[in-house]
Specification:
- The chain is an all-alpha fold.
- The chain has a domain at 62-167 and 260-301.
- It is 75% helix and 0% strand.
- It is built from 14 helices and no strands.
- The chain has helices at residues 2-25, 30-51, 60-71, 73-87, 90-97, 100-111, 118-136, 143-167, 173-195, 204-227, 233-239, 242-255, 261-280, 294-299.
- The longest helix has 25 residues, at 143-167.
- The relative contact order is 0.23.
């Protein structure tokens, strides 16, 4: 059942950029979409926190660091991706944003001292080469700004994932999201008001698209959190590779996204590289603390939160 949950969540995440494109075509601005999406997500998360046995808010010492992530890294990462969708094809944006493991690898090496095997380095270079090919073969007016926004998004996502490993191993995923999402929602609303980009007079199509992407993200997050209690993270990541595949196919079939041979090759290289990285396993970690030690008790593996980003 857990693998099915991951596959369904990957499908829902994969269609999220398509739904965002539909919303944009109906006159919805990115900040309007993100404000409504994060607010609804926060409400659903708190409902889940209240009714889920064993779920509780994070310890007091984690509230400030999590709030800090919620008002800086997380909204910047999510906004970068959804802004890029306004100027780039959903297929390119989805594939490039899934190169986050490249940044996770070097940030983990720099901040956590995790070793990189030669195989990992080679695969990461292949992923970078494929992403470069995708970027170079994406003919769009906002190409440079969109690619820059995706760069910010992937870096932010990687930093968030690394930060989780140091901060929230002992916190329940719903508790973490219950802090981060309201903070992010406040940032979106504030930014939208200051920039004059909040417009709640949505058309029926726009309202339907916003509602669909909100529900898709909420259901996908719940399914992932449920599956990770029974499924190893590496296996979940492998199954999650369905997400960019769904985004690419949907973008071509539903949005008429033009696909050149070189761009298709670049997308294939990125997907193959990420799949190979997941099949091989995560980069080797630094020596683990000895069982029974204070560090072992503090950093033992626990369920990890899932970014509300796709």
């Amino acid at each position: 059942m857990a693998p099915i949950c991951i596959l369904i969540s990957a499908f829902l995440y994969g269609i999220s950029p398509i739904l965002a494109k539909v919303a944009y075509a109906s006159g919805v601005t990115p900040l309007t979409l993100l404000s409504l999406r994060a607010t609804a997500g926060a409400a659903l998360t708190w409902c889940g926190l209240l009714i889920t046995r064993g779920a509780r808010p994070p310890a007091a010492g984690l509230l400030l660091p999590l709030a800090g992530l919620g008002v800086t890294v997380v909204p910047l990462q999510v906004w970068g991706y959804f802004y890029a969708l306004t100027v780039l094809p959903a297929s390119s944006a989805s594939v490039i944003v899934n190169t986050t493991p490249v940044h996770v690898a070097w940030i983990s090496r720099l901040l956590l001292g995790e070793a990189l095997r030669p195989f990992d380095v080679g695969i990461l270079l292949v992923i970078v080469a494929g992403a470069t090919l995708v970027a170079g073969q994406t003919p769009q007016a906002g190409h440079v700004a969109g690619m820059a926004a995706l760069g910010v998004s992937t870096l932010g996502s990687a930093f968030y994932l690394v930060a989780q490993r140091r901060l929230v191993r002992d916190a329940h995923p719903l508790g973490v999201l219950a802090v981060i999402l309201p903070c992010s929602a406040a940032v979106y609303w504030t930014a939208g008001l200051l920039a004059g980009q909040l417009d709640l007079a949505l058309s029926s199509t726009g309202l339907l698209a916003v509602g669909a992407t909100t529900v898709a993200a909420a259901v996908a997050s719940v399914l992932v959190l449920t599956a990770l209690r029974r499924l190893p993270a590496t296996r979940a990541a492998m199954l999650g590779m369905l997400e960019p595949v769904v985004a690419v196919v949907s973008s071509v079939l539903l949005l008429g996204d033009a696909m050149t041979w070189l761009r298709a090759v670049g997308i294939g290289i990125v997907l193959a590289g990420i799949t190979a990285l997941q099949l091989k396993g995560a980069p080797a970690a630094a020596p683990a603390p000895q069982p029974g030690s204070r560090m072992h008790a503090k950093f033992r593996d626990k369920p990890r939160p899932v970014p509300w980003s796709s």
